[in-house]
Amino acid sequence: MDDEKLSRILKAAGDTSRRRILTMLVQEGPLRVTELAAHFDISLNSVSKHIKVLEEAGLVTRRTVGRDHHIAADLGPLRATEEWFGQLKSIWELRLAALDEILTSKGQDDE
Average pLDDT for residues 25-43, to the nearest whole number? Predict the structure, then answer.
């Protein structure tokens, strides 16, 4: 996955309101925009803007039925963040293993 797409995902998930929207969608299933907005003390327009950011990151999908917009979570793109964090974790594990080896050999040298 390219850095730009990963950045969009992290930016989208970095906002408290957007995380709450995602959480609601995962817990309750697809919801209309107005149903989502009812849970927030912000305008419908602001909720719509948050949804747009989530859409651009690929974290939600929209299905329009008449005038109703149904929003559903799509957590597939989060796999990219899991892979990225996994790479970071493996780098740190290698570094910690190397440090442990150095400290172990230093301890043996001191004996």
Answer: 95
